[in-house]
Design goal:
The chain is of the alpha/beta class. Helices cover about 40% and strands about 20% of the residues. The chain contains nine helices and eight strands. The chain has helices at about 5-10, 15-30, 30-40, 55-65, 75-85, 100, 120-130, 150-160, 175-180; strands at about 45-50, 70-75, 90-95, 105-110, 135-140, 185-190, 200-205, 215. Strands 3-2-1-4-5-7-6-8 form an eight-stranded mixed beta sheet, covered by helices on one side. β4, α7 and β5 (about 135-140) form a beta-alpha-beta unit. The longest helix is centred in the middle third of the chain and has 14 residues, at about 120-130. The radius of gyration is 16 Å and the shape is globular.
Length: about 220
């Protein structure tokens, strides 16, 4: 099945023309879905998608044949209701704060979550993920001196202004903030820009006695 077929089939699960167009564009433009699938394929451990939104990642993984249980958590009731309507097998979506759902055991996925928390909460989330999970995958824009960072901030500020994102703050982490909690893990850190100008990176942490880093 081609990438376009996957995007089309996932988009067809959503109830309105706008959402179907958005989901299809998002999967085509954002490489994170393929990247997550490549790193969790073949695993049977429960997957915890923190900040799951409308469940696009879960729907994509199911379409690609990922069969392990999926739990999605998000504080946005409307988006959770949309995710629940997709009818995905062995997938549970719940209205919950990330701070509560982080304590579930399983492969931990956090896509574009950390900027909505202050420094203390970010550190807490990362420490709990490192303590409870053997595989943690994070995609976030990082705060640095690149031209991509202000472009990212402007886009996120707009999304908050139009209420697509219900977030109290924007507090983008540094790369060091994300990696500090994962001593004793093998770390893979790669750019995750796709067709977009945003300063996104993928952080993949696998528990290991070696604890090496590749970039």
């Amino acid at each position: 099945m081609s990438d376009d077929d996957v995007a089309r089939r996932v988009a067809a699960l959503y109830p309105t023309r706008f959402l179907r167009s958005y989901v299809r564009w998002k999967i085509a433009a954002d490489p994170v879905y393929q990247a997550v699938f490549e790193r969790v394929r073949g695993t049977g451990e429960r997957l915890i998608d923190l900040g799951c939104g409308m469940g696009v990642l879960a729907a994509y993984l199911r379409e690609r044949g990922f069969a392990a249980p999926i739990v999605g958590a998000d504080h946005d009731k409307l988006k959770i209701a949309i995710a629940q309507r997709c009818g995905l097998a062995d997938a549970t979506f719940m209205v919950d704060d990330v701070e509560d759902a982080i304590e579930l055991n399983g492969t931990m996925i956090m896509l574009d979550v950390l900027p909505y928390f202050d420094d203390s909460a970010q550190s807490h989330l990362l420490r709990v993920a490192a303590a409870d999970s053997d595989l943690v995958i994070i995609r976030d824009a990082v705060r640095d001196g690149s031209w991509r960072y202000p472009a990212t901030y402007a886009q996120e500020a707009f999304s908050r202004a139009v209420r697509w994102l219900k977030a109290k703050r924007l507090n983008f982490p540094t790369r060091q903030t994300i990696t500090a909690a994962f001593g004793g893990f093998d770390a893979e850190i790669i750019p995750m820009w796709g067709r977009m100008p945003f300063n996104n990176y993928l952080f993949v942490f696998r528990r290991s006695s070696a604890g090496t880093t590749s970039e």
